[in-house]
Automatic annotation (TrEMBL):
Database matches in InterPro entries: Asp_de-COase-like_dom_sf, CDC4_N-term_subdom
Pfam families assigned: CDC48_N
Protein name: CDC48 N-terminal subdomain domain-containing protein
Residue ranges of every copy of the CDC48 N-terminal subdomain domain listed in the record: 2-82
Amino acid sequence: MVEAQQDDAYKGVARLDSEIMRSLDIKKGDVILIKGNRATVAIADRAYPADVGEGIIRIDGILRKNAKAGIGDVVEISKADVKEAKK
């Protein structure tokens, strides 16, 4: 896990390699579950070109804090089971 770029800070975005997204059946815009010492959710987006093939996830400090994980930590990623809100 590495630091999010400034453009993604405070947006709840997690950037993943396309190969990882494909293997987990995650598409851009899907809600994903990130498990460190605690679980949190984020919106999946594609990795920046420089990160392709690196096997990293980029998330901001808020998401890292929510997951109780730090830069360099290994986290578990899965597609979140989200139900639509009803009025």
